[in-house]
Specification:
Elements lengths: L1 H10 L27 H12 L10 H12 L6 H9 L3 H12 L2 H14 L18 H12 L4 H10 L8 H6 L15 H21 L18 H8 L20 H4 L18 E3 L7 E4 L27 H10 L6 H14 L20 H13 L4 H9 L13 H7 L16 H11 L27 H4 L24 H5 L18 H9 L1 H17 L3 H13 L5 H20 L5 H14 L2 H4 L3
Antiparallel strand pairs: 1-2
């Protein structure tokens, strides 16, 4: 049986060690091609040229300011900002805009949302009762602050894994450990003994996936079928969480420590509750009722030079320091995975696709890097420059590659060579995500409330969604009107009950780490935008603002275009809009509607909100 498994393992391309796996080779700063100033452009242009392709021309100033605002803050620029930038566009003005947006408080909000996907953030437990995790919103705010303060990524990792064991432990570092408790939690498992191993699997999965880009949980029942991860390694990692609140306890604790054990009130965090936990066993075939050999806590053996025995913590230490030593292993500059994985995540968010297109899997079954030398260069530079994320982002957005147009004059010919745009000969066209769509709708009407932080709000839930609940008010209670206009980042994320517009536009499943959201194009999206009450309210609010500003129809149309698209309409668009508004006015008058002129203007606004120009970045 073992021989057959080995043959199968080798037949699908696996190796007996990690020596041949590209992601496990030491990170070395690659030498960029000669004769070019910008390193990123040098690497990418060399690949483009090698395929006899040509890079797209640079995008217009209007496109670039919209792109930068979307990528760095998630908010659209105003018409006035676009016009000022377009009229005074220079390379220096572009750089100045980049620096200003990186220093905006809204930068942290935008980039926190990307990270929350990776660590499966939600504010409820899931399962039947889907109870609220008290104070878990503080973790979201901690991530926002970490990005705004440009916390070095190695410290960002250490705080989330072992903020309770740090020498500089404080309330913020304890809040950071809430990452370990973001997953689902069953308050009434059928087999409590079995369930504690399910919880361990969730923790191993999020840590190994988010920080290392490895599917370590696949080794719970047997040696990993493709990667050099023996079953014992899974249990060595899981043992780091064994001293915590894994055993079944009182339901109000929700599988975590008490405030007394954590040493802090009103924090949903994690800490060891036992300094001398019982022996931890490898499970035969992953079965909790078939314990095997005793396994000591340790690191992944796929990085031999870092596979050292854990140190015995000093008597004065907080907890067992198993997680702190795990964090040291992950953030060691010689770890070949950590920097590569994070650099790839950042690149993916800015370019629209990763250098490695499987961001959560850098193992043997991963996508091969499209630009391996560039990935090595950026990873080495990331470590040597102090693990600074803002610096990395700045490097990428200042490159000519990022500034390319998404439309190429020879698109059909070049797509025949590289239809997936792996060599990045043009910018990838991207649709705004669900949160940015809602924020745009509130922004164009001037209603968006930019207050930061604090408990999440509940939007108005459509009655048909709550129709199946016997106690509707218990399932969902909308927040006061003044709270419901805040950014979508601060909207409650209930695992079993999400706002329909979010799910229609591919909000991720929060039960598992999400490294790359699906981007679907399906009929329910169009139907949602056409029929959703929230969208209609925004159309009417915009129409009222426009109508109050000017009575002349041509001026009204111009203002609509400026607010929705950030530009003036063409003469053809003016005529089409006038024709549409006239037809709608006649229609509403024929049906004896009140204020037909207003309804016709709102209809025009609503139609434009449903357009691709509004839904896509550029």
């Amino acid at each position: 049986m073992k021989i057959r498994s080995l043959i199968l393992w080798l037949s699908v391309g696996a190796t007996l060690s990690g020596a041949d796996l590209w992601s496990l080779r030491p990170i070395k700063r690659s030498q960029p091609p000669q004769g070019r100033i910008d390193v990123i452009d040098a690497f990418v242009s060399a690949k483009v040229a090698s395929q006899k392709l040509q890079a797209a021309p640079l995008a217009s100033a209007g496109t670039l300011i919209k792109r930068l605002h979307f990528d760095l803050t998630g908010l659209p620029p105003s018409f006035e900002e676009i016009e000022k930038f377009r009229k005074n566009f220079t390379p220096a003005a572009y750089t100045s805009l980049v620096d200003r947006l990186l220093e905006s408080d809204h930068f942290g909000e935008r980039w926190a949302r990307h990270w929350l996907d990776v660590v499966r953030f939600a504010e409820t437990n899931g399962y039947e009762r889907d109870a609220l995790k008290p104070n878990i919103w503080k973790y979201r705010d901690w991530v926002v602050n970490a990005f705004n303060e440009d916390m070095p990524y190695n410290n960002f990792v250490r705080a989330q894994l072992a903020g309770d064991e740090l020498e500089e432990r404080d309330e913020a570092s304890l809040i950071a450990t809430g990452m370990l408790r973001l997953g689902t939690w069953n308050d009434e498992p059928n087999d409590p003994h079995e369930y504690k191993y399910e919880r361990l699997e969730d923790m191993v999965d999020v840590v190994s996936t988010a920080f290392l880009g490895l599917t370590v949980k696949c080794a719970r029942c047997h040696d990993h079928k493709f990667d050099p991860i023996p079953q014992r390694d899974y249990y060595r990692l899981a043992a780091a969480f064994w001293p915590g609140a894994i055993e079944p306890r009182d339901r109000p604790l929700m599988g975590g420590p008490s405030a007394n054990e954590l040493g802090m009130e009103n924090v949903f965090g994690w800490t060891d509750i036992r300094t001398d936990p019982p022996d931890f066993h490898l499970l035969i075939k992953g079965n909790p009722h078939q314990p095997g050999e005793i396994v000591r806590p340790g690191h992944l053996s796929l990085v031999p030079e870092l596979d050292r025995p854990l140190k015995t913590p000093p008597a004065s230490a907080r907890g067992t320091q198993r997680r702190l030593q795990m964090a040291d292993f992950i953030t060691d500059p010689n770890n070949p995975l950590t920097a590569r994985v994070m650099v790839n995540r950042v690149w993916q968010q800015l370019i629209g696709q990763g250098i490695v297109r499987t961001p959560n899997n850098f193992g043997a079954k991963s996508d091969t890097p499209s630009h391996p030398k560039l990935l090595n260069y950026l990873a080495a530079d990331f470590i040597e420059s102090g693990w600074k994320i803002k610096r990395l982002i700045r490097q990428i957005v200042l490159s000519k590659i990022y500034q390319q147009d998404s439309v190429h004059p020879r698109d059909a010919r070049q797509s025949a060579v590289d239809s997936a745009n792996r060599f990045i000969w043009k910018m990838n066209r991207r649709r705004v995500d669900a949160e940015s769509l809602r924020d745009r709708l509130l922004s164009i009407t001037g209603e968006l409330d930019l207050r930061m932080g604090g408990p999440s709000f509940y939007p108005i839930m459509p009655p048909e969604v709550l129709a199946g609940f016997s106690q509707k008010s218990a399932a969902w209670k909308a927040s006061p009107a003044e709270e419901r206009k805040r950014r979508s980042l601060y909207m409650i994320t209930k695992r079993n009950l999400l706002w329909p517009l979010m799910t229609a536009f591919d909000f991720p499943n929060t039960e598992l780490p999400c490294g790359n959201r699906d981007v679907t194009t399906v009929a329910p999206q169009a139907l949602s935008l056409m029929n959703n009450a929230f969208v209609h309210e925004r159309s009417q609010r915009l129409a009222k603002d426009i109508q109050d500003s000017t009575e002349q129809l041509s001026n009204q149309i111009q203002l609509i275009w400026q607010r929705i698209f950030g530009r003036n309409p063409s003469s053809q668009e003016q005529e089409l809009a006038k024709s549409h508004i006239h037809q709608q006015t006649v229609h509403f008058k024929a049906h004896s509607a009140e204020n037909p002129d207003f309804l016709a203007l709102a209809s025009c606004c609503h139609g434009l909100i449903n357009s691709n120009e509004f839904l896509y970045v550029d």
